[in-house]
Amino acid sequence: MNTILFALGSLQDEIDRVYALDVDAFRDCINALSLTDLVFLWKAVGHEALGRRLSEEIDPEVVSQVLERLPYSTKAESLKYMSNEQRLLVVETWSLQKNHDELRKLGNWQRSQEIEWHLGIADRYIKSSRLPMDRCASCGNCYDYWQSIDILDCMRHSSCEACLQEDGVCLHCDPSFG
Ligand SMILES: [Zn+2]
Ligand SMILES: [Zn+2]
């Protein structure tokens, strides 16, 4: 039984329950929601890990439809923090024109956010237009459009998703890694 809609008033227990479901049960639970209710849930969730499940374990076509109905900042945050794999699948559901438009909008949004961050550098960027760091400090690969760029703790280097250490530590700048 999908009780999630009844629980949105006092959400935390229900969020914890849904968060603990395995992938199939989670998908069943989400698939039972209408698009409107899914959008409502997506907006209501301040729970980071559940937000990640929402963006990563649902059909990219559905994610794309939900994103269209979110306020822009929620949409941009969702795109920013989902995995590269899921983000690229979502982008593939768009036309080339929409892809360009969304990339430009995201680039503008990222620039507008910088003032909120220490030294004016965000924790993560999505490769859009010109950015201060164009390649991963570990593997040396240049970033492709729509790939995530994680800024490391030294604030001078960045990492691709594959090379990222859990705590965002920079292996170049941290002497304990020799
Ligand atoms: Zn790398
Ligand atoms: Zn560094």
- Proportion of strand residues: 5-15%
Evaluate the radius of gyration: 18 Å
Which regions are unreliable across 5 or more consecutive residues at pLDDT < 50?
Answer: none
Order of helices and strands: HHHHHHHHEEE
Trace the largest sheet across and list its strands: 1-2-3
Tell me, briefly, the overall form: globular
Largest sheet: 3 strands, antiparallel
Spell out which ligands are present: zinc ion
Mean pLDDT across all residues, rounded? 89
Strand tally: 3
Fraction of residues in helices?
40-55%
What is the CA–CA distance across the termini?
54 Å
Q: Quaternary status of these chains? A: single chain
Number of helices: 8
Indicate the structural class: mainly alpha
Brief account:
By secondary structure, the chain is mostly helical. Helices cover 47% and strands 5% of the residues.
